[in-house]
Amino acid sequence: MGVVPVSSFAADGLDFRDFLFVVVDQLSYRALKDLRKRKKLLALMGGGAGTSLAVELRNLEERARQEHEENMHALRFGSHTVSLRYGDVVQLQHVRTGLYIGVRGKFSAEHQATSRRAELQDGTMASWLTVNPFFSHRTQGELVTFNEMAPG
Using an 8 Å Cβ cutoff, are 95 and 19 in contact? Predict the structure, then answer.
């Protein structure tokens, strides 16, 4: 899929809501990562789940479920921070789909080989984005101002 220039949203039948994202606080994915690693290891071992492995897997599944509930609670009733500072780790959630912007570390962007590929995906650690200043006179911890230029 290539980048197609748009002369007018109305004339081209595009809905601007497809381009809206919400900045949300960093969510946790540690338990989900541990569960996926363990399941992958068990699959490589032939899936032979002994009693201790089955108990460990259930514990990891429970931790991942609790983590998911905490993330959903944070999204519903989170801090909704008004201020954003350079150095903050955030996630960009697509309003229409609920997915997050994520970075594919081993793939370059289609139109700029020196950049990483970004795409919509389920929330993972790959969707954590650090807010960095575009200009060198801005420093970590400083407030981001409205309409300020960001690296891209």
Answer: no
DSSP 62-91: HHHHHHHHHHHHHHHH----S--BTT-EEE
Residue found by looking up tokens 């068990």 in the block:
42
Residue 34: inside a domain, yes or no? yes
CATH number at residue 77: 2.80.10.50
Task: State the first-to-last Cα distance of the chain, in angstroms, to the nearest integer.
Answer: 19
Model-level pTM? 0.66
The CA–CA distances, whole Å, from 138 to 30, 68, 88 equal: 31, 35, 14
Q: Which residues form the domain of 109?
A: 20-130
pLDDT tens digits, 133-151 = 888 888 888 888 887 776 6
Residue 138 belongs to some domain of the structure: no
